[in-house]
Design brief:
single chain, mainly alpha, 77% helix
Length: 173
């Protein structure tokens, strides 16, 4: 049983709770900026609400795991945008939602692999495009620009600023 727990249980290293709380504060600010940006551009955050789940997942990666290849700006922005584009294509041309969802995730992974931009929340972006219904379908390919591109770029810029500031603050201690 002990051997099984070693493989499926939590990592034995003690997490740095202070660092995680600081990272969570960075994510709070970034998601707030994304919402404010969408409000300024569209007069409503409703068009960006379905995107909260994928951007939340991206925020965990860029704020908590900044050294991960998945957190690279290229991966976040291109991975999410490529996934949005294939999701919109699947939503438009595959009438059965279940089939469109499966094909969208397949195409998102393939597109991210070909563009060297693997970013796991991209799969959720593709699903969002397929499953969110009329508000996203009405946006069509514009969905890939706003909210996906602008939200991804805002998130990346906020994370770069956060980690730069955090690095300076840690060195000052």
């Amino acid at each position: 049983m002990r051997q099984l727990w070693k493989h499926i249980g939590p990592h034995p290293a003690s997490p740095n709770h202070r660092e995680h709380v600081i990272a969570a504060c960075g994510a709070l600010v970034a998601i707030g900026l994304i919402s404010a940006l969408n409000l300024m551009l569209t007069g409503s955050v409703l068009t960006s609400l379905p995107l909260v789940a994928p951007m939340g997942a991206s925020a965990v990666i860029v704020f908590c795991l900044p050294q991960s290849p998945l957190a690279r700006p290229w991966n976040v922005v291109i991975g999410n945008v490529a996934s949005a584009l294939v999701g919109v294509i699947c939503a438009r041309f595959i009438p059965q939602a279940e089939v469109a969802a499966a094909v969208a995730v397949f195409a998102a992974i393939t597109g991210m692999a070909l563009s060297r931009s693997i970013h796991p929340p991209g799969g959720a972006v593709a699903l969002t495009a397929v499953l969110s219904g009329a508000p996203i379908k009405d946006l069509g390919f514009a969905f890939a620009f706003n909210p996906v591109f602008l939200s991804s770029l805002t998130l990346v810029l906020a994370a770069i600023g956060f980690h730069t500031l955090k690095g300076r603050l840690i060195k000052a201690d």
